[in-house]
Amino acid sequence: MTATQQQGNAGVVIVGAGQAGYQCAESLRQEGYAGPITLIGDEPYTPYQRPPLSKSYLLGEVDKERLQFRSSSYYAEHGIELLRATMVTTLSPQTQTLQLSDDRTLAYDQLVLATGATPRQLTIPGSDVAGRHYLKTLDDVDRIESHLQQAERIVVIGAGFIGMEFAAVARKLGKTVQVLAHAERVMERVLSPQLSDYFQQLHQQQGVEIAYGMDVERIESAADNSYRVHCSDTSHYQADLILVGIGSLPNTELAEAAGIICDNGLLVDENGASSVPHIYAAGDCTRYSHPFAAAALRLESVQNAVDQARAVAAHIAGQPKPYTTVPWFWSDQYDTKLQMVGLAEGCDEQVLRGEVASGRFSIFHYRQGALRAVDSINKPADHMISRKLLAAGVSPNKEQAADSGFALKSLLG
Ligand code: FAD
User: Fold this and answer.
1) Smallest Cα–Cα separation from 226: which of 114, 370, 130, 294?
2) 0.85 exceeded by pTM
């Protein structure tokens, strides 16, 4: 494709070949869309899943090939042109064209922005030392692995999901792990205090040290390739490898420059449509007024990327299926599987189902008497039934929720 394609035959162009981009391409075909599909990603790989990067892949339990959603032949077989290692540099909604990093111009009839999010960067003195890592891509993991084998002392800056999953892997690999949390508890942004306590104890039992309320001020390099991480309270920590997990920011530069309305994410409706005609968005780069939430929110999860991409594809294919799925998420740390469904923010009552000490329990979160979220620890059956209850708007009463012997599915008729 050396020249701009003819309008009307350009088909759907998807920018970003991650979870949402791949899903959108696949769902377009499933919905019967027969026009051209071009999937453009700046990474050099066949689209792959990210969750194992901080879990089984980092532990060496799965190989690269198993990370792929589909083998590379799938794309050609389904008429999906996959452009790898290609960055979209400019978007012009007026001419419905994109500029690519290899100087090509590409036209679109419908455009889907699935550009994801980028790890928030540390900007303190010394934050560019070679032993400081982020964890987002396969290339990041390759870089981490090249240092990890020799590293004894790991400092994790940030106690969010990525930081705590990495801490768990590093402990499993026998490293000394110090987590420096800015917050007062682990995974504070998403977990209830009770679950933060549970995970704190889990990590501490495994030998992870956690310091709270820490402000990392600077990183100093030592002659022996190690580092000293200094905090504002004058404490300091020796490290051979530093993992930074301090949140992420939506990749909206392309959209903003093109005049699409963004505000901590590309603002989209229930079909993933943006403020500009013929332009949709899905996944980590979006913010959406989800019917289940009180305000527009940006979700960074596989579920959100998949369901939003499906809604976009269905709308483009002329069979709208608005995105209303109740949000859900999971995390694996050691042998503990956390599964969350719903949104616990603003909840005023919690009910425990099962025994915390058994390591298998769920917490039901209620707001004004209505079930709003369920967090399950090693209780996949509770999670699955809770998804159905929340989707149907059915609330077990608190006695039913607390009684492990009560069959919650009986409430669904
Ligand atoms: P991404 O998958 O990030 O894909 C976006 C792609 O677009 C990237 O490849 C990016 O490089 C590319 N791109 C951006 N701009 C351009 C451009 N201009 N031109 C071309 N390409 C571009 N979620 C869970 O629910 N459970 C988990 O356990 C879990 N674990 C995770 C572990 C890790 C280590 C990470 C990083 C994420 C994890 N997530 C998890 C989150 C989940 O993976 C993301 O929410 C999901 O990948 C979002 O999909 P996306 O398509 O929006 O973005």
Assistant:
1) 130
2) yes
